[in-house]
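call fold(seq) -> tokens
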Amino acid sequence: MKTMLRALRTSAVLLASVAGFATVAHAADPLRVGASFIASGLDPTKGSNGWALASHGIGENLFSVDKDGVLVPELAASAERVDKLTWRVRLKPGRQFSDGAPVSAEAVSAGLAHTTANNKAALATGGKLAFQAEDPLTIKVTTERPVPLIQALFAEWPLIVYGLKADGSAVFSGPYAVQSFKPDAEIELVANPHFDGAEKRSPITYRKFGDAQALTLALEAGELDLAFGLPAESIARLKKDPDLAIKSFPVGYQYLAYLNTRKPALTDARVRRAIDLAIDRSQLATAINGGLPATGAYAPYFPFAGKETRPTDAAKAAALLDAAGWTTGVDGKRSKEGAPLELTVLAYPQRPDLVAMLPVVKAQLAPLGIAVETKIVENANDVAASGDYDVFLWAQHTAPSGDPAFFLNSTFRTGAGLNFTGYSSPDFDAILDGFATESDPAKRADIAAHAQQKLFEDAPVSFLLSPVWHVGLSKALSGYEPWGSDYHVLRADIGEAN
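ret:
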């Protein structure tokens, strides 16, 4: 049955090609995509929906990062500085939302203003933003803090562009439009009729899989044309299947561990540094069959990445715990004033590598006398925001706009919207202030290096790995090339690549 289904789909692809279209199926033969994540809803202001909706090919930004990592215009045509706090952004003419309404300065301004009023992450770089439509294609943008590179700000994932409809819902401009949406399960997508090349674009069924093994089995059964985020342990087996293409690629994500500075045992930076020093990153890479030990906050191919692997030193870690008053009893367990040193370490299944790393982290902390309970949680953002954890293994793209500032500002600045660790340091905030006035890339890299050094010292986070990810493809999408981590899973060229 599996072979027959694949043969039928291949025949449909060939017929489509003969008919003069790209070598993908059309409306009668939608593409089937599976991944471990899906937008939580269609409200672009909620959580990380801005990222997810762009990843699904539904929405766009004013600026974006292309497959070569270069910051480029997307819905914008240009941006020019007016004064220290003011920029003028010119939109591309002729662009439309999926309902046919023009992507106008007025519509874009209203949508972005709505986002900045409802999503703290959108304020990370420029603070409060104000928008004024000067003419149908020109927006005057005023920032609370100086922003030397407004293009990078508008490539940040919270600032997806949309129009607000009369009922308060959003309409987007990407190559695909939503036909139906089942929360936490499935999105049916159709070609946005107002996006160039719509006639060549197949409908797509995008499904969320609760675990990586289910995703793998669906690919092997011929149920998917694209499986994004396959577990590393399945790759050798999948590569033996002649009906599949497996592609692996480095990503801008970092695997890291948030250390909750509000928890009693972790208020002391010496304890946090001890945890960081206890982790052997090479063992983590072995556990997930790939990736490189982290050098800091950024993947190694970025010019502002660190150059040296984060150290492992169990003896120094033990000495730090001793100095912090956590002594070892006859049972080998640490305690202080009668309280045991116990940590709850979390991971989430949408990133299966993190789950695979959990037992390794537990085993690495055990020799120090730290008792660890591990848990897997579904709603990672909600749990992280609640602060109900000690250590949280996390996957984060740390330079989504090709610039180092957003991650640091949104995640570790005092009171920032994504500051899940509760970290607060006036000295660190002062370092980040330098991003607001410096536009030279080399000097911005220096600021990033200084900020990372401060994080190494205070240890609200432990940077673990720069991972490699894997996608599986049927013959219908064998020409698909992954890029942009998971920020551009579905793209306008998804069919044209074949």
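The first helix runs from residue 2 to 18.
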